[in-house]
Design brief:
This protein is an all-alpha fold. The protein contains six helices and no strands. It has helices at residues 2-26, 30-57, 59-66, 70-102, 106-130, 140-168. The termini are far apart.
Length: 177
């Protein structure tokens, strides 16, 4: 529930970036496209670091909103390390998704997400949960670890794809009139 509430921040930024990219790209304003992409990643990275650190610092207060059971609180407190690390990857991949949607590259988003989540996250998460690898088994934290790594993989893939698209834009950086 908490992660869903926090996800509103990068999702909103991604939606705004998608609209802005679509508008400026359609207008042929490639300088504005580049500036929008740079600004989105800088803002997203800054917000993700702030949210990650804040989530970790306030983990006990956040957990207390949802439960009073001390065993559950202890278990969830351990998970908040993953929650904090998760933020950077989640923000970057979400913003990358918004950028690619602005360029109307929805198919590549689908393919990358399907491959990453189903061919990496699920099997690796299950192995980390139930097998003695990497000082495990890790229980449900194994799924969180696999998801964190997956988000970073997607973030890098989306950034790489965005970089390729931007490099193909006309190099004159003409401004629309």
């Amino acid at each position: 529930n908490y992660m869903t509430l926090i996800y509103i921040i990068p999702m909103s930024l991604a939606n705004a970036v998608s609209i802005r990219i679509g508008y400026t790209y359609g207008a042929g304003n490639f300088l504005a496209v580049r500036n929008t992409i740079s600004s989105a990643f800088v803002i997203g990275l800054a917000l993700s670091i702030v949210v990650g650190i804040t989530s970790y610092i306030l983990k006990n207060q956040i957990i207390s909103i949802y439960t009073t059971d001390e065993e559950v609180k202890k278990l969830l407190a351990e998970t908040f390390i993953c929650v904090s690390v998760y933020q950077i990857g989640d923000y970057c991949q979400t913003i990358g998704t918004g950028i690619l949607r602005g360029f109307q590259k929805n198919r590549i988003i689908l393919v990358m997400a399907l491959i990453t989540y189903w061919m990496f996250t699920v099997p690796v998460g299950l192995i980390l949960c139930f097998r003695s690898v990497l000082w495990g088994p890790h229980g449900f934290n194994g799924l969180w670890i696999a998801l964190c790594v997956s988000l970073y993989i997607l973030a890098v893939a989306y950034i790489y794809r965005t970089h390729r698209i931007v490099n193909r834009l006309k190099t004159d950086d003409r401004l629309s009139v």
